[in-house]
């Protein structure tokens, strides 16, 4: 049977079951059967309960902390490799530990590089991910990487809002390229926030570069963690005369007091994908699913078709 006619198999890591079920539904096949045995000391062992010999296997799981999520993906990759799967694609909507992509001071690891090597060693023959913290992380892999952009799902939502006097914004200098890409698609202006940190997750100073008076501002970022930068930027823009401020963030890490900060901020809404499951509901948080995007790309890979149309930025 030609390889393109073979039925693919989709399995989920435990942290991404809900997203994987949606992806499998859009793909048109049932989610594969995998169970995880747990020992009393916290050790666990995933097991495929059906044959994967000669198949293309898609393993879906975001690798956000804690480290068990990454470990589960590694163990499932190894299990698929040792079960004679023909192709093993790690579908990682949120590639965790990606903020450690360089040595920004002496005697620290480059975690993103290390994890790339771990995934390949464990058995991944291809990686599909979305909105990496830094595009160049693709270069840490020797295997093919399909780096998707959440703009594919965010731009239609943004256009449907029909905002006038729209201005795209970056909450820091590092995200300026992303904000410019969105502004090009939306034919809007761009402003940028310049921030200085006292330490990780703590802002000592922020300044706005550009005019937001009377503008409907949309902040764009790859992830929102403590929401300190995002809410600080939103409040600053409202003080500078913005008409409204909302934010688009692909990965809702949302740790610590993030939900409280968002609730108490001047943000009108925070638009996120389901790359990471939300810990709680919030009236200000709007979820836009990335399941259909991943399903379409996975199906194109299985049938050896181009996926270039999915790269909007």
TrEMBL record:
Which GO BP terms apply?
Answer: 5-phosphoribose 1-diphosphate biosynthetic process; purine nucleotide biosynthetic process; ribonucleoside monophosphate biosynthetic process
Record's keyword terms, sorted: ATP-binding, Cytoplasm, Kinase, Magnesium, Metal-binding, Nucleotide biosynthesis, Nucleotide-binding, Transferase
Q: Which reaction does it catalyse?
A: D-ribose 5-phosphate + ATP = 5-phospho-alpha-D-ribose 1-diphosphate + AMP + H(+)
Kindly give the Pfam families that the UniProt entry links to this protein: Pribosyl_synth, Pribosyltran_N
- GO molecular function list: ATP binding; kinase activity; magnesium ion binding; ribose phosphate diphosphokinase activity
GO CC, sorted alphabetically, is: cytoplasm; ribose phosphate diphosphokinase complex
- Name the EC number(s): 2.7.6.1
Q: Which residues form the Ribose-phosphate pyrophosphokinase N-terminal domain?
A: 9-123
Q: Which InterPro entries would you find in this protein's record?
A: PRib_PP_synth_CS, Pribosyltran_N, PRTase-like, PRTase_dom, Rib-P_diPkinase
Instruction: Spell out where the chain crosses the membrane.
Output: none
- SUPFAM superfamilies of this UniProt entry? PRTase-like
Q: Which NCBIfam families match?
A: PRK01259.1 (NF002320), ribP_PPkin (TIGR01251)
Protein name in UniProt: ribose-phosphate diphosphokinase
User: What's the source species for this entry?
Assistant: Psychroflexus maritimus
């Amino acid at each position: 049977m030609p390889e393109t006619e073979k039925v693919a198999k989709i399995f989920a890591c435990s942290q991404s079951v809900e997203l994987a079920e949606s992806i499998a539904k859009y793909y048109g096949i049932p989610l594969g059967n995998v169970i995880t045995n747990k020992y009393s000391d916290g050790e666990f062992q995933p097991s495929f309960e059906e044959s994967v010999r000669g198949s293309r296997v898609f393993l879906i799981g975001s690798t956000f902390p804690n480290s068990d999520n990454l470990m589960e993906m590694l163990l499932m990759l190894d299990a698929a490799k040792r079960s004679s799967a023909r192709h093993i694609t790690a579908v990682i909507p949120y590639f965790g530990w990606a903020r450690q992509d360089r040595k920004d001071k002496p005697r620290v690891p480059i975690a993103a590089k290390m994890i790339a090597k771990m995934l390949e060693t464990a058995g991944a023959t291809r990686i599909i991910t979305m909105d990496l913290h830094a595009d160049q992380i693709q270069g840490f892999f020797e295997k093919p990487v399909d780096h998707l952009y959440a703009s594919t799902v965010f731009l239609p939502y943004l256009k449907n809002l029909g905002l006038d006097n729209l201005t795209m914004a970056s909450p820091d200098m590092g995200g300026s390229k992303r904000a410019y890409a969105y502004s090009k698609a939306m034919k809007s202006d761009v402003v940028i926030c310049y921030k200085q940190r006292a330490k990780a997750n703590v802002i000592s100073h922020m300044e706005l570069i550009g005019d937001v008076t009377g503008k409907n501002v949309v902040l764009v970022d790859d992830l929102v963690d403590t929401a300190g930068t995002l809410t600080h930027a939103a409040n600053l823009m409202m003080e500078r005369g913005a008409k409204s401020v909302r934010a688009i963030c692909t990965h809702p890490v949302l740790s610590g007091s993030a939900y409280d900060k968002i609730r108490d901020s001047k943000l009108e809404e925070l638009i996120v994908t389901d790359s990471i499951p939300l810990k709680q509901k919030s009236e200000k948080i709007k979820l836009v699913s990335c399941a259909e995007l991943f399903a379409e790309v996975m199906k194109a890979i299985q049938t050896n078709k181009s996926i270039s149309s999915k790269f909007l930025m």
